[in-house]
């Protein structure tokens, strides 16, 4: 039995009419568990019409009312985390604790958005000119869309929708077709929280739906998170159509391990960040740059930890690492390990070998040493449980390697030297930096985003930049003159 996974339009489940669907798998068993509807352009029009009508009302809702809905949503999300985590694990494969972790990080964004009355507070200048006051206000854009990746089916939509809705917009989510059910659970919670129908829409689909969103005159802005080629495409097509676009792309995150680092702590951190969620995180550490003498002890310490990790079904409490998202992706990742080996990397631990569950899309942990920058295991985002170690002689050489990479999402330095860490923070050309912190995802009251090919557009996701993205500024200059002093003056207005 497979489940039909339908759209959520105008506050209710709406069966697709396009006749096109896509299979959804349980990656731990390999079984098809659902068929998700893929939207047509006509269905997109219906969704935008509903969202547009709802947005016109919602922009008039008081800030305290919006905040109350967000508080209610926050409570429901918190209470029903175990249910949502189970949905995520069943379609994504990540372990339940990791699924609960992504919900907790998404929840932070909802909590941030509950402060919308304060976040939208503008400035006021009295007496900018004689008898003239100036103030600024921020207003919603109308209907905005989010296109999200498979690897965080709850957190990334929450990065976007909490702020978008708090700011007075209607939000249309096009989730990944690989794990679409979490989006519908969020829709149900929004409804239970009292959000009016039409303000949170889930439109499932593929390129047809995404292109439709990018072209639709009724959509004012698009937030995207996914791979770099698609992020670039989304940015170019969306902005060509006059929309605001923030498009976050792929990553190749380096850990720089200095000779003075605590080797055991660095190894614990690198293993956690390389293999957590089977490496399918945009903030995964996929390259360890070992400086000088730390290289061999670091490789030994990482290798010693890998046999202790249990690979299996994410619903099993003993499992550390679940399967990959699809069979094709698992085979692609395994292909990179082979390519690295052929190119001369040392395979210290081979994830293709060993005792893995036979059903499902499993691959073990791989550790490659003596990786060099021209190998495809280094140049490409693999998005799997593969860690490459690049050995360098100096801090400068390591820094140069990181700064030469096309991706610049996150990075982390491991050291006991505060001066070296401070220097790295200043020198490194990457958007998010960890100092002895392996996955430096900013808290919700900062903003998230990489540099270079990890982000197209100039606005980072969520936090203060998210509030700016989902609103446009208006500046009002006012005076209340005495009619008796009124006169015609064709000169340009001056403040002095
Ligand atoms: P993806 O780019 O394949 O898909 C992302 C979204 O784009 C999905 O909703 C998908 O349906 C849609 N899409 C795919 N191909 C399209 C096309 N040709 N035209 C229009 N839309 C298309 O990414 P994914 O495999 O779902 O997710 C993994 C990628 O996301 C990795 O590269 C990862 O680094 C990246 N990611 C980045 C961040 C970040 O914050 N920078 C966060 C999470 C994931």
UniProtKB/TrEMBL annotation:
Region annotation (Disordered) ranges: 1-22
PROSITE patterns membership: ALDEHYDE_DEHYDR_CYS
Ranges of residues in domain Aldehyde dehydrogenase: 16-476
Alphabetic keyword roster: NAD, Oxidoreductase
CDD domains attached to this UniProt entry: ALDH_F6_MMSDH
Record EC number: 1.2.1.27
Domain of life: Bacteria
Region forming the signal peptide: none
Name of the molecule in the record: methylmalonate-semialdehyde dehydrogenase (CoA acylating)
Species this protein is from: Pedococcus aerophilus
């Amino acid at each position: 039995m497979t489940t039909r996974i339908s759209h959520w339009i105008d506050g209710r489940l709406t069966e697709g009419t396009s006749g096109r669907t896509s299979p959804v798998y349980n990656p731990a068993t390999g079984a098809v568990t659902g068929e998700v509807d893929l939207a047509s352009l006509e269905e997109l029009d219906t969704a935008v019409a509903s969202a547009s009508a709802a947005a016109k009302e919602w922009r008039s809702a008081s800030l305290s009312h919006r905040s109350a809905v967000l508080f209610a949503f926050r409570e429901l999300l918190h209470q029903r985390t175990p249910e949502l985590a189970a949905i995520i694990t069943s379609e994504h494969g990540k372990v339940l604790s990791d699924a609960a972790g992504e919900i907790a990080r998404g929840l932070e964004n909802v909590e941030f958005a509950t402060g919308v009355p304060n976040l939208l507070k503008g400035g006021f200048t009295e007496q900018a000119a004689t008898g003239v006051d100036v103030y600024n206000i921020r207003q919603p854009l109308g209907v905005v869309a989010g296109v999200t990746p498979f690897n965080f089916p709850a957190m990334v939509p929450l990065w976007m929708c909490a702020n978008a809705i708090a700011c007075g917009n209607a939000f249309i989510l096009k989730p990944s077709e690989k794990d679409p059910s979490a989006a519908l659970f969020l829709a149900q919670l929004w409804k239970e929280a009292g959000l009016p129908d039409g303000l949170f829409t889930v439109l499932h689909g593929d390129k047809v739906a995404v292109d439709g969103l990018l072209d639709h005159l009724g959509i004012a802005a698009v937030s995207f998170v996914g791979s770099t080629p698609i992020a670039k495409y989304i940015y170019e097509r969306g902005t060509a159509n006059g929309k605001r676009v923030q498009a976050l792309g792929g990553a190749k995150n380096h850990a720089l391990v200095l000779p003075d680092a605590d080797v055991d702590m660095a190894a614990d951190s690198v293993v956690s960040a390389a293999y957590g969620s089977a490496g399918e995180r945009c903030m995964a550490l996929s390259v360890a740059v070992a400086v000088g003498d730390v290289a061999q002890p670091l490789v030994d310490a990482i290798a010693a930890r890998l046999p202790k990790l249990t690979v299996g079904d994410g619903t099993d409490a003993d499992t550390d690492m679940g399967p990959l998202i699809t069979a094709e992706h698992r085979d692609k990742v395994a292909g990179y390990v082979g390519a690295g080996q052929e190119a001369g990397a040392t395979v210290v631990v081979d994830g293709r070998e060993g005792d893995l569950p036979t059903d499902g899309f499993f691959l073990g942990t791989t550790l490659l040493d003596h990786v060099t920058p021209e190998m495809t295991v280094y140049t490409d985002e693999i998005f799997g449980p593969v860690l490459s170690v690049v050995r360098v002689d100096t801090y400068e050489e390591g820094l140069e390697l990181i700064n030469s990479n096309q991706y610049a999402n996150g990075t982390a330095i491991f050291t006991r030297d505060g001066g070296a860490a401070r220097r790295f923070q200043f020198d490194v050309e990457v958007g998010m930096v960890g100092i002895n912190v392996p996955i430096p995802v900013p808290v919700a009251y900062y903003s998230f985003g990489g540099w270079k090919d990890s982000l197209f557009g100039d606005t980072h996701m969520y936090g203060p930049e998210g509030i700016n993205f989902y609103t446009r500024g208006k500046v009002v200059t006012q005076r209340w003159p005495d009619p008796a002093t009124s006169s015609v003056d064709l000169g340009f207005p001056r403040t002095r």
